[in-house]
Amino acid sequence: MNRFIMILLAFLALLVFACSDDEDDRSERFKLLTGVTWTSDSLLVNGSDASGPGQMLENFKGEARFREDGTGTFGAYSGTWSFAANETEIIILTDSLMFPLTTKIAELTASSLKVTTSFPNFELPEQPFSLRMTFKAK
Amino acid sequence: MRRLAAVFLVLFFLVSACATMGLAQQSGRVYGTVLDRQDKQPLPGATILFARERGIVTAQDGTYQLNLEPGNHTITFRYVGYRPAVHQVQLGANETLRLDVMMDPEATEIDQVVVSASRFEQRLSELTVSVSLIRPEALSSAHIGDPKELMNKLSGVEVLDGQASIRGGSGYSYGAGSRVLVLVDGLPLISPDAGGIRWRSLPLENLSQIEVIKGASSVLYGSSALNGIINFRTASATEMGESKFFVETGMFGKPRQKDWVWWESPRMQTSASFSHLKKYRNTEVGIGSFAFIDNGYRRLNDERLGRLNLRLRHHDQQIDGLSYGLNFNGGINHKRDFILWEDAWQGALKQDESTEAELHAGFFYLDPFVSLVRDGRFSHDLRMRMQASQNRFPVTTNNNSDTRSLFTEYQTWYAVGDGVSLSAGLMYYLSQIRSAFYGDHDGRNAAVYAQAEADLLQGFKLVGGVRFEHSALDGVSDKVVPLFRFGLNYQAGEITFLRASFGQGYRFPSVAEKFASTTLGAVRIFPSPDLIPEKGWNSEIGIKQGILTSNWNGLVDLALFYGQNKDLIEYVFGVYSDPHTGAFDMGFRARNIEYSRVSGAEIEFRLINTYGRFNNSISGGYVYMYPVEFNPLTNKNTGVFLKFRRHHSARLGLASAMGAFEAGLDLFVRSRILNIDDVFLNPLTRETILPGFYDYWQENNTGHFLADLTLGYNIHPRYKVSLAVKNLTNAEYMGRPGDIQPHRNVSIRFSGSF
C-alpha cells in the first residue's frame, strides 16, 4: 500500500509539473506595446499625409490603445490585436475593416511605435497603397 | 463400325464402373454436428472448408457430412461471431469418422486486443484512453477502397478534404499539416513536405485491424499526434494461408440538382485487389496489390492508382522470439484534385479551369525491422522506415517536389514484476525536401520517451509517460519540449471499467505551412517561416461496459472529454508582403491564430447478436461537442465557435447475415458547420474565390443525413457477390467550402478468399 501511495504521489507531482503554466507570455514587446496609450503622429499613404477628412487613414487619427487582454481601440476603430511572425507584426482585426490588417513593426520603444503595411488598390491592383503610421507614447 | 462403337461403350462402362466402385470402396466419411460450446446449441449455416476450392455449410440442425479421399485433411469451420475452428483428420479407406465441433464465440468485444494505446498489446477494457477498433471486414462489406471514406464514417472523426479531425481537434487548413498522425504498424506515414496523411499509400489489402486513439498521443508518437492517431496494422500470416481478391465497378447517378450534370457518358469507378498471405516454414510471406480507376463525378477531377505491398518476416529457429524482416509498400497515382468550383448554379461539379492541376505522383516505403520478444517478460524492437515520394505536375512544374525521409526507432518493454512494466524508446527522423514549391529543406527530429504501467491494487491500474522531443529545420533548432501523459483504469465490475486520462500534444509546423508559396487560380498562398509549434492537452473520463448474455456480445463506451490547444495554425486571408519582392498582395498565410477549447461527450457501442438463423450486429455512436475559441491573454472563452466544427454527429450501423445472405445499413447524421473562414463570407472576397458560395452556404449549411445500403450473397462458401448503394437518399452536402460530396452511387463487387 505504501508503494501505491508513493507512486500515486509521484504521478500527482508529475501532473502538477505538466500542468504548470508555460513561461510568462508577457514578453518585452508585449509590455512596451500595452504599457502606454499611443497618439498618432504621422499617417502616410504613399509618403503623403492621409489623415485628413475623407482620407484613407482618417479613422486611425487620435489615440491607439493595445490592451493586455488583446482588445484595443485604434483611432475610431475598436477590435482586437495580436502579434504575429515572432512579434515582428501586429495584426489588427475590427468589424470596420474587411479583413485583418497586418502591419510590420518598424520600431517599438517605450516612446515610439512605427508600423508599415499595404492596402489593396482596387482601381489599380498592381499598385497597392503603401501605408506608414507612427505613434508616440502619450 | 457399330461393333467398334459397342465395344468402346462396354469398355467405357466397365472402366467407369470400376472407377466408381474403387472410389466407393476407398473414400471415407466425416460427419458430425457443429455446436456452440457454451449453450450446446447447433449452429446452422456454418461454413466447412475442406479443400482449396471446396466447402459446404451445416444443415438446419447443425449437422454435416463430408466424403473425403483417404489421407490427411485440414477441415476449417467458420461461423460469424465465432473463432474459426481448425481440425486435422486422418481418414482411412472406407473409414467413417464422427467429428462434433464445439465453436467458441469470438473474444468478447471488450477483450479485443490493441497495441496503439501504450505500444504493446492490451485489451480494450484496460486502456486509459478512448480507442475505436475497426475490422477490415468493415472496408470490404461496405465497398470502401479509400480509407478517408472509412474514417469519415467513424464516430467522433471527420475528414474534410483529406484532413482528419478527431473530436473537433482540427478544422480545415487547405491540405497543409495534420493533427492526426496516421501510422502503418506503428510507424508514421505523413508526407515530409505537406505534412499531410498519405491516405492512398495505406496497404488496405492486408489489414488485421485499424486502431483509432481519440486524444493527444504525442508522448508515444510525437509531433502530429496532437489530436490522436490512426494505426493501420497489417495482418500476420498463418500456416493455412489465405488469398483474397475482389473486382468492383460502380457508377454515379444524377445529383439532386439536375443543372449540375455536366457529363454525357456515365461516371464510373473501377477497382481490383489481390492479396496472399501464408507462412512458409518459418517465414511469413505476404503480397498485396490494388488498382483503382475513377473518372470522377466532377469535371477535371479524376484518379488512377496502382499499389503493391510486400511483407516478409522470418522467425529465427536458433533464438526463441527473434524475428526480422522487411515490409515494402509503393505505388503510382495520377490524379487531378478538386480545388475550386466554377459556380454554385450550374458549375458546382465542375472544377474551375484555373485550378486544374494534373499530378503524377510516385511513392514507396521500405521497413526493415528486427524484433526480440519473450512473452510476458521483455521485448526489443528496432525498426526503420525509408520513405520517398515524387510529385510531378506536367503543366505547373513549379509545384513539383521530391521528398526522402528516414525514420528509425528503438523500443524496449520490460515486465519489472508485480504488475509493473516499463517501456522506453528512442526515435530519430531525417527528412529532405527538394522543391521549387516549398524550397529545399532538411529536417531532423529526435525524441526519447519512457512509460510505466502499474497494476497496483486489484483492478486498479496507473499509466504515466514522458517524452522529450527535439526538432530542427535547416539547421535551426527548436527548444527541447517535454511532454507528459497519465492515465488511470479501474475495474469497477466484472466487465465494467472506468478510466481517466490526461495527455499533452505537440505539433511542429509542416514545411508546407511554413514555406509554400504559390498561386492556385485566384488564390495566393504566402509563406510564413516564423510559425511556431502548436501545443495543447486533453483529458477525458470514461466508462466501458461489456455486454455478454446468451444472445448479445458487445460493449458500450461513454466518454466525457475536454481539451485545449494553443497557437493552432490556420490560413488567414489578408494583405501580406511577398518575402522575395516585398510587394503586398491579398491572399492566404498560415498563422498561429487559433486558441481552442473543445468539450463534449461521446457514446460508442457495438453489439453482436444471434437470433435464430440471423447473425446481427448493431454499432454506432453519438458525439456532442462544444468547440470554442478562447483568449490566451485573459484565458476566457470568446464565444466564437471554432471553424469547420459541428455540435452533433451520429452514426448507426445495422448488419445482418443469414445463411448465404448479408445486408447492412449505415445511417449518418451531422449537424451544421458552426463557423468557416471569413474569406468565404466577406463581401469583398467571397465571390472572387467561390462564385455563388455565400448564398448556397446560407441556404444549405443545415447539416445532413446519409444512408448507405449493402447487400451480399455468398454464391459459394468462398465467393461472394455484393452490391453497395452509397448515399441512398441522394443527399446533397458539402465538406469544406466548394467541395460537394458524392451523390448517390452504386457499385457491384465480386470477391473471394481461398
Q: What is the CATH architecture annotation of chain A?
A: Beta Barrel
The CATH class designation of chain A is Mainly Beta
The fraction of residues in strands of chain A falls at: 35-45%
Contiguous runs where pLDDT drops below 50 for at least 5 residues of chain A: none
State the CATH class of the largest domain in chain B: Mainly Beta
**Strand elements of chain B, count:** 43
Largest interface: A-B, 34 and 38 residues
Question: What is Rg of chain B?
Answer: 28 Å
Helix content bin of chain A: 10-25%
Structural class of chain B: mainly beta
Low-confidence stretches of chain B: 7-25
Strand order of the largest sheet of chain A: 1-3-4-5-6-7-8-9
In N-to-C order, the SSE pattern of chain A is HHEEEEEEEEE
- Name the shape of chain A in a single word: globular
Counting H and I runs of at least 4 residues, what is the number of helices of chain A?
2
Q: How is this structure best summarized?
A:
The complex is a heterodimer of chains A (138) and B (754). Chain A has a single domain (27-137), classed as Beta Barrel (Lipocalin), CATH 2.40.128.540.
Textual characterization of the structure:
Chain A has 138 residues and is an alpha+beta fold. Chain A has one domain: Lipocalin. Chain A has helices at 2-19, 28-35; strands spanning 37-45, 48-49, 63-66, 71-74, 77-84, 89-94, 101-108, 112-119, 129-137. An eight-stranded antiparallel beta barrel of chain A has the order 1-3-4-5-6-7-8-9. The longest helix of chain A is centred in the N-terminal third of the chain and has 18 residues, at 2-19. The mean pLDDT of chain A is 82. The radius of gyration of chain B is 28 Å and the shape is globular. In chain B, the strands form six sheets. Chain B has a 22-stranded antiparallel beta barrel. Chain B is mainly β and 754 residues long. Helices cover 8% and strands 57% of the residues of chain B. The chains are: A alpha+beta (138), B mainly beta (754). The A-B interface holds A 3-4, 7-8, 10-11, 14-15, 17-19, 22, 25, 68-70, 82, 84-86, 88, 91, 98-102, 104, 117-120, 128, 130 and B 454, 456-457, 462, 464, 466, 484, 486, 502, 504, 528, 530, 532, 535, 537, 572-577, 583-586, 591-593, 631-634, 678-679, 682-685.
